[in-house]
Amino acid sequence: MPASEFDRLWRRLMALSEIGAIPGGGVDRQALTAGEASAWRRVIEWGREAGLHPATDEAANLFLVLPGRDRAAAPVLLGSHLDTQPTGGRFDGAAGVLAALDAVTDLAASGRVPARDCVVVAWMNEEGSRFAPGMMGSEAFCGVRDLAAIRAVRDADGVSTGDALERFLAGFPDLPRRPLGKPVAAYLELHIEQGPVLEAAGIPVGIVTGIQGKKTYAVRLSGAEGHAGTLAMAQRRDAVAAFARCAAALHHEMGSLDPDIKLTVGRVQVTPNAPSVVAGEVRFSIDLRHPDNAVLDAAGARIAPLCEAEAGPCAVAVTPLVDAPSNAFDPGLRDRIGRAAVELGIPAMPLLSAAGHDARHLAGRCPAAMIFVPCRTGISHAPAEWAEPAHLAAGAAILARVLEDLAFADALPLPPDLPPLPGDLR
Amino acid sequence: MPASEFDRLWRRLMALSEIGAIPGGGVDRQALTAGEASAWRRVIEWGREAGLHPATDEAANLFLVLPGRDRAAAPVLLGSHLDTQPTGGRFDGAAGVLAALDAVTDLAASGRVPARDCVVVAWMNEEGSRFAPGMMGSEAFCGVRDLAAIRAVRDADGVSTGDALERFLAGFPDLPRRPLGKPVAAYLELHIEQGPVLEAAGIPVGIVTGIQGKKTYAVRLSGAEGHAGTLAMAQRRDAVAAFARCAAALHHEMGSLDPDIKLTVGRVQVTPNAPSVVAGEVRFSIDLRHPDNAVLDAAGARIAPLCEAEAGPCAVAVTPLVDAPSNAFDPGLRDRIGRAAVELGIPAMPLLSAAGHDARHLAGRCPAAMIFVPCRTGISHAPAEWAEPAHLAAGAAILARVLEDLAFADALPLPPDLPPLPGDLR
């Protein structure tokens, strides 16, 4: 890829990061906000300049279409997301959308007509910070979650995703609406690693083998409020004391079960949360990840019994939320990424994704794969998030080369029978 | 006390509970709010009807003065507070102010001039829910805490106590200001028990022996934020995991140190408090109480070492806030309360106060004592708080009788040398 075109990608990334900019170089551009609408307008404008046709769907996924010879054939999709965490960075999501736009722009500029549509996509609400949990756009598109259930989710101000979708899409009345769940021939996504592996290895590109499985839970401990001075300890049903025992036991047991388990209790909400009142209720989140589905299932099965054993006089209710098994990406597409890296002389290595991505859901629908680029010290979801221009250029060049393969291939591979998770995912 | 006068006390209590009323029979009338100002106006009006002279001081304590023969003599003070918790009840504080007003009103109506001023008092911000910690008015009056330090405390909206004091007092421009820290001959306070002892014993009046000691702390655990999917457990500095270990260990060790220790971790604040982010910081409160100062000191000395031992890779900072040793009330006044109960044929029992009260601070300045009345199932700081009319009548009758003794006595006892905590405080 010539330097000038990489300059275009970098310039666009920096320009996009001005939309929703926060101090320290970060970005606050949460899903379906005015900021995301501004980002859409900018990206649509860049797409139109390249001759691409913008479209959307009921789930407010954004598409920029380069028409192929056979308009009825399943398209190649490539992209990521434009929303960020409230204190997010400049690269998570945006890098993948703009690298895809760059690749399709170059393809269009070459004057050749691809065999099938090549489509840049920006999925709605990957982050899940405003409306939780995230990945709503790809879930709706892939039929993983019902759109009605997605529309019912409310943000902290009580606004439903449904209302936010309608208000957002009303700002784009001219965009045609594509049906949800159209067949897809293949899906590619470039993303920053959000981990330290590539940087530590000194390798600019990761060929993502799969995504680590994840289960999440909401736990409620119900005790009884009481006066800190008058209620005897033996008579207390103290929800904070119960929480401390549960969380300490969960960390202790999960650590001994398997060293690769990742357990995070990230959110804790105490009621009434007053210094001199014994807490009547604690609600907390559990995020559990492991690349081996068998280990993940075994760990998940321990959550409720452990909480029940440690809750003492408090009642405990464990509600499973997300249950996303580990998935492997398409071996054929991973091979193509590896061959492109070799042809371009770019060092690349296989790598498991510890974080979830929209590609997880696409992988259930079509051959899918991801390209990772390093990010400094593994930091993401923070203003300090940073990717080196040269690394982004390397990843984008490989993405463009694989797109060439897919755009002009006579026939694309059928959706793979998802194989059992290979050993290299560990 | 004739039935009609008790009816007056009950009617006034119910009328006052309309000011700041919340669903379920509760009251939200926090310190220095418009609601408390309305309560002041009502109480001042009742006091003026009885011929009492309202006054205030720089700390917005309210006084209603029945002048005595010797205006230069130290007065008898009796009262409590008019502020409530945000979801408080009808009796906590208000019962003590209105019972005091009733007693002084009856004394004034008798036409006899007491030997010394008899003064109803409503202390500013006993509850400490808006500006923490509480008991600000009695602390300023007794010189326990500097008024400048009190004025610097801010509420959750950033309003300083100093600004709130000035705005509040500007609503009462005609009230004369008494100096802080005037000598006091004796202090009496009637209050609901806020515990289950009297109700369980079937006794309508408690002669409070003293107040259980209390220490409070603010603890900050500082770790590092991280991605729940990508950051290896071994590399985490997870503040929630550290909190769980600290809180579990505190409960375990304090329970084994002494069965009467009361340990409450009531407030927990997690940053950023997001399900998929390893928490970078947890701040939490510790409330520690025990009637024996030696045990309380020994328990308090364990707080910081325990937190440091359990914080793992997180930094820990323990800040002591309140250090209020147990105090015993004046034996002479307790005797007078007991004699009044016998004379009136009202069953009474000695009782330790597990909760703190303004009387704690007055006890360091003058002979002080408290009269408790039962509250249903020990509940307070909640709309369900309830005291039986007959129990209130009994407590108020004893208060009035002891006031008679103090109002006309030739000479009042000197401030006692506070004795070592007697055994009956346990």
Give an overview of the whole structure:
The structure is a homodimer of 426-residue chains. With 426 residues, chain A is of the alpha+beta class. Chain A has two domains: 3-211 and 327-425, Aminopeptidase, CATH 3.40.630; 213-324, Alpha-Beta Plaits (2-Layer Sandwich), CATH 3.30.70.360. The first copy, chain A, is 35% helix and 22% strand. The first copy, chain A, contains twelve helices and 18 strands. In chain A, strands 3, 4, 5, 6, 7, 8, 16, 17 and 18 form a nine-stranded mixed sheet that branches.
Primary descriptors:
homodimer, 426 residues, alpha+beta, Aminopeptidase, Alpha-Beta Plaits, 2 domains, nine-stranded mixed beta sheet, five-stranded antiparallel beta sheet, 12 helices, globular
Which chain pair shows the most residues in contact?
A-B, 60 and 60 residues
By oligomeric state, this entry counts as homodimer
Radius of gyration of chain A: 23 Å
The CATH homologous superfamily of the largest domain in chain A: Zn peptidases
CATH class call of the largest domain in chain A: Alpha Beta
Instruction: Profile the largest sheet of chain A.
Output: 9 strands, mixed
Given the C-alpha coordinates, what overall shape of chain A results? globular
Estimate nothing, just give the exact number of structural domains of chain A: 2
Report the total helices of chain A. Answer: 12
Uncertain segments of chain A are 414-426
CATH topology description of the largest domain in chain A: Aminopeptidase
Instruction: Please report the total strand number of chain A as a whole number.
Output: 18
The span between the termini of chain A is: 33 Å
From the coordinates shown, what is the CATH architecture of the largest domain in chain A? 3-Layer(aba) Sandwich
Helix and strand run of chain A: HEEHEEEHEHHHEHEEEHEEEEHEEHEHEH
